[in-house]
Amino acid sequence: MSTPASLADPEISRTEPTVAQLFTGFLLLGLIGFGGVLPLARTMVVEQRRWMSGKEFTELLGLCQFLPGGNINNMSVAIGLKFRGPAGALAALLGLIAAPTAIVIGLGILYDHYQDDPHIRHLFAGLAAAAAGLLVAMAVKIALPLRRKPVAIAIALLCFLAIAILRLPLLATMLVLAPISVLASWTLDKGENTP
Amino acid sequence: MTSVLIALALIFTQLSLLAFGGGNTILPEMQRQVVEIHHWMSAQQFGAMFALAQAAPGPNMMIVPLVGWHVASWPGVLVTTLAKFGPSSLLTGIAMQLWERFKDRPWRRTVQAGLVPMTVGLVTASAAVITQASAHEWILAAIVAACAIAASTTRLHPLLLLGFGALVGLSGIGQI
């Protein structure tokens, strides 16, 4: 699919991964990635294994951020597909989620088994509270760039109200709010670009 | 059993296609479906599963196979995993074919920028829903606050903060 122009350039040596390398590469990422796999993925794909350039990586990431789904999940599919077609996509995605799935279910079995033990219950209550705190921090981090955009704040608040307070279905909420949100951003954009 | 698996497949397929802005945007809807509509678990259990998934390595949506396992054992894991990762992966494949054509169009940037406020609203809703499920004692609310502040103002590793929360929890202070 990709015929690297860099073949003529001896400075940059790219190695196209095989299906097995895609699997093992993402397997490793799945095992070592705590709280954010994406930066590690970039290091592995661009710097260590040199499957693609930083620019190509950023471009693929742009596509994955545009689509629904976790960025790293979509990235594994896109990278696998780019080099080895559907087999590569499957190998990369399976590699990424295989080990974490096994680990998380192992933890789930332990939790189910010991959840009546008060110590374990207390431990997990504390863990859950800490995880909630991390999510609060993430919400703050992504909300801050909106602070001088009243329309965006209003849309975010409406969305919060619908989902967290009124507990409305996500599909209906998105069908109503997404077009409004896009339209508002488009109108404001035009306003800013015309003097 | 089959009807449960079909319900799981439908729920997670829909979530897969609605997860604009990443996995954390769909937590409230996931909780609404599995706790409030289907009563497969309590809100507390859902919060605990979210915490387990955060404590494990890998992408952040590992709560998905965990819910599948809790509801319908291994078939549940298979169904939820396929339903969550299948549709968005297919979409990625299709979009890759079209991306060259639409990535430089102005509407692409407009749509992407236009969805940001939605993502902010949804992630904030996730934080509220998960906090509500987790902070049912004063000490737990204090852990939520401490971790939120530490994660926002320091560069401490998330695992360190999860470990801190687990230890304070284990001490049993303020819990019955």
UniProtKB/TrEMBL annotation, chain A:
What's the protein's topology in the membrane? Multi-pass membrane protein
| Coiled-coil regions listed | none
Taken from the UniProt entry, a GO cellular component term is: plasma membrane
InterPro entries noted in UniProt = CHR_Transporter (IPR052518), Chromate_transpt (IPR003370)
> What does the UniProt keyword field contain?
Cell membrane, Membrane, Transmembrane, Transmembrane helix
Gene Ontology molecular function, alphabetical: chromate transmembrane transporter activity
Report if keyword RNA-binding is assigned.
no
Q: Cite the Pfam families for this sequence.
A: Chromate_transp
Query: Which residues are listed as membrane-spanning?
Result: 20-41, 89-111, 123-144, 151-178
The main place the protein resides is membrane
Q: Where in the cell is it found?
A: Cell membrane
Recorded family membership: Belongs to the chromate ion transporter (CHR) (TC 2.A.51) family.
What's the protein here called? Chromate transporter
TrEMBL record, chain B:
Question: What are the TM regions of this chain, as residue ranges?
Answer: 74-99, 111-133, 139-170
Pfam family of the protein (one): Chromate_transp
Subcellular location field: Cell membrane
Citing just one GO molecular function, the answer is: chromate transmembrane transporter activity
Name the UniProt key words of this record, in alphabetical order.
Answer: Cell membrane, Membrane, Transmembrane, Transmembrane helix
Spell out the GO cellular component terms annotated for this protein, sorted alphabetically and separated by semicolons.
Answer: plasma membrane
Q: How does it sit in the membrane?
A: Multi-pass membrane protein
Which PANTHER family does the record match to this protein? CHROMATE TRANSPORT PROTEIN-RELATED, CHROMATE TRANSPORTER
> Would you identify the family this protein belongs to, as annotated?
Belongs to the heat shock protein 70 family.
- UniProt-recorded name of the protein: Chromate transporter
